[in-house]
Amino acid sequence: MKSARMLSGKGCVIFMYKIGVVGERDSIIAFLALGLDVKAVENKDDAEKTVDTMARKGYGLIFITETVAKDISETIERYKKQMLPAIILIPGTQGSLGIGLASVKDNVEKAVGVDILSKKEG
């Protein structure tokens, strides 16, 4: 993985991975203000190629809108088995589809061993 290396004030080496955002233009354009690499995609093939390219170029984190993610679930599953890039699903302008929350819930349950995020009545 490629990453930028820089020294902290104490002389320690800090690795800085690039962060990318993939999705529909209207949903991701605001991320430009944060200095993230934003790639608007039009279709499934474009989305898969963009995610694969970001992974190959050493991105440490890729945010993907849920609308795009539902079309490229196989690509996302492939990267779940790898350390990097971490892929985080985010809602688009239409609101959440629940896919991102379900993914976070699954990951927390794997890490903790129990579902601690479900709302339980009683």
From TrEMBL:
Keywords: ATP synthesis, Hydrogen ion transport, Ion transport, Transport. Transmembrane segments: none annotated. It comes from the Bacteria. One of its GO terms (biological process) is proton motive force-driven plasma membrane ATP synthesis. It holds the Pfam family ATP-synt_F. GO terms for molecular function: ATP binding; proton-transporting ATP synthase activity, rotational mechanism; proton-transporting ATPase activity, rotational mechanism. Produces ATP from ADP in the presence of a proton gradient across the membrane. Belongs to the V-ATPase F subunit family. This is V-type ATP synthase subunit F. The lineage of its organism: Bacteria, Bacillati, Bacillota, Clostridia, Eubacteriales. The gene is ntpG.
